[in-house]
Every structure is written in structure tokens, then in C-alpha cells.
Amino acid sequence: MERSKKLSLEKQKIKILLFENIHPNAAQVFIQAGYSEIINFKEALDMNNPTHLAYLKTAHFIGIRSVSKFNKNVFLHAERLAALGCFCIGTNQVDLDMAASQGIPVFNAPYSNTRSVAELVLGELILLLRKIPEKNKLCHEGVWQKTAHHSFEVRGKVLGIIGYGHIGSQLGVLAEALGMQVIFYDIEPKLALGNAKFVPLDFLLKNADVISCHVPETSETEGLINQERLALMKKTAVLINASRGKVVDIEALTEALKSGFLLGAGIDVFPKEPGCLEEKFESSLKNIPNVLLTPHIGGSTQEAQENIGFEVAEKLVKYSDNGSTLSAVNFPEVSLPSKSKHTRLMHVHLNKPGVMTAINEVLFSRDLNIAGQYLQTSMNIGYVVIDIDTQLNLEEISLLKSALSKIPYTIKTRVLLSPGL
Fold first, then answer.
1. 244 labelled catalytic
2. 84: helix, coil or strand?
3. What confidence tens digit (pLDDT) does each residue in 31-46 have?
4. 20 catalytic, yes or no?
5. Strand, helix or coil at 85?
6. Which of 37, 176, 273, 306 is catalytic?
7. How confident is the model at residue 420 (pLDDT cuts 50, 70, 90)?
């Protein structure tokens, strides 16, 4: 019996689809691991593009960045998808529950561009406190505005960080090295680094000279910086948002800046962003003096993209090769030893009573010797990996997989064949 697509697909036949100009080292990771069917698109996934749709239907592993949207419709078109890699920090662009319900783990790189974002914010706060954007524009227009009015050093100023995670805390360390006083607010208890101090949000807004947002996009953070909270800030304050586009009410910020209420702003993320170079960027913040607008490039450095490309591709390869789901954002995390001489069975199911009993009954009825069993569950999903020590031929393995697939609440089964089969 030949190898079946229902069993362990040969690496040369596994199709990998990458969107949004992912760093070339991601493809190199796949190639070095023995994968050769790799398709790269510079643009984001477009469900109206027939070529994209055709590749989507046959891809086993897909990589995206922040622009491509993976909703229910996309997952239903991706009929063979085994895992999805987000080559970025966030996963807001993915319907994680839908992915889990299809037995598809989603991986990302939550820390690889931390330094890049922190450095961008640090550079922007220096430029904004010195009113460089406005002075730069005037010089280009032939105006020589040599004045120290509303131009400040960063030393001694108060930096308020909203969201003290990996980026926020690293920004605080860098800012302290410049002589800034760091205060922060977070909804979770966080260990303060250096001399940073936790304060209530209103206190931070009223006392910070620079306010930088580093929070995820949730229902609680949407419109976090609104008209009322902008009104609490100092008239000489600077606001920077390099987190998520919906965190700041852009229209309220525009009004505050045009009325001269705030000193300046740096915005890297927007509620609606162009999906490609051809699409024009529109914002009410355009052409306002002392405003820095950047096209969602907080993590867009060569170093960050190299790190992200390597990290996410490695996670996808590991899942493909041995079934490990460690650090998956929507899936039970199972850390597995490298696949050895055993045949490895992987079973994804709804987290319901009786499923494991049914699995073990299937194995017991075939008198199979279990070399290892690894199980983790989340609220809705269960994931068990079983190494079989009993020697089975391909037909027996196919029948075993079929029996496991028929167990109630089964979502997906995979088999990795032992060498020699």
C-alpha cells in the first residue's frame, strides 16, 4: 500500500503559502527542514484574487502578517490547512476560535520586535518634544523658525506608559537611561523595572509629559484614549500610539491637536489602514504640525523581521514534524520530544467527557502498546498525542486512524509514520 494523503504526507508534497512579503529567512527555515513547495506573495491575502483562492484551497501551512484577514470564510476555503503562522506580534486579524474549531493551531512571534517598537517610540518622543516635525516642514518650505518656544529636553520629563508588557517595560528601561521618570498603568499586576512606578490611569494622564500606549486591541481598550481622557492631559503633553489603531479616538485627537491643546502626537497604527501600496492613506491627522504619522512600522526593522521569520517558521516546522503546539495562541500547548521510531497519532477533539476513554478503547481493542501519551486541554479543545510502539503496516494504521476519526466530538486526526513505513 502506498503512502496515503490520509496518513503522513511527504515533506516534498506539503504546500506552504506565505503572504505579505515575509522575510526570506522563513522560507530558508522550511527548505532546511526538507520542505520545497513554498509560494511567496508580496501582497496580503485577497479573497477576490483567483490565484490566491486557488493556492488557499491546497495549502497545508500558511504564513501572514498583520494585513491579511483570516475569518470564518477564509478558514472554510482553506480545506487542507494544518496550521497558521502570524509573522507579527498580534493575532487580531485571525478568528482564533474558528481556527481552534477546525483543529488549526495559530502561532505568532510575541516578543521578536519588542526592541524595534521601543526604539521607534523613544525616537519619536525626542523629536516631538523638540517640535522637530514642525520645524522640519517649515525648513522645507524655506522658513527659518529658530526658537526654543515649547521645545523641551527629555531629561527630567515624565513618561507615562499605558500597558506595561514586554514593549512597555523595555521602553521604560531605555527612557530611564535618558533621565526620564517612568510611571505606568496596567490592568494586570506587573513587576516594575528600574525606578518605574505603577499609578492609576487618571494620575498618569494628568502628570505625564509623554504618554505611550502599548495595549492589545480588546473591547476594553477600544477608544481608551477618548475626548474625556485627552482633556486630562497636560497642554504640553505628547501622545504616542504604536499599539493598535482603535485604542485612540483619532477624531478626538485631531480636534485636540488643531486647537493647540496638546504639544504633539506620534501615531503608527490606525483604525483603518491601506491593504497595499496602491491604496491611498487617509487620516484627519494629515498635515497637522508636530504630528508624526508612520505606516504601522513599529516592528518593521530588518532585525525584527529576521527574528520573526525564523521564530514563526520554526514553530510551524516543529508542529509539522512532530506535532508540538508549544506557544500556540489558540490551542492546548503540548511540548513533545522529537519523533522517534514510533508511529505518532494526533487527535484534536472538543473538550467533552468520554473522549479519552473512547480513544483508549480503540487502542486497547487493537492490542496496541503505547510508548507515550501527551494530553492538554483548553476550555473548548482537547489535544492528545500518542506514540505507538506496536509495529503496524500502512493498512492497519489507516484503519486505526479511521476508527479514531469516528469517535464523537473528533475535530481532526493526524498520523506521523515511523521511519521505514
1. yes
2. strand
3. 999 999 999 999 999 9
4. no
5. strand
6. 273
7. low
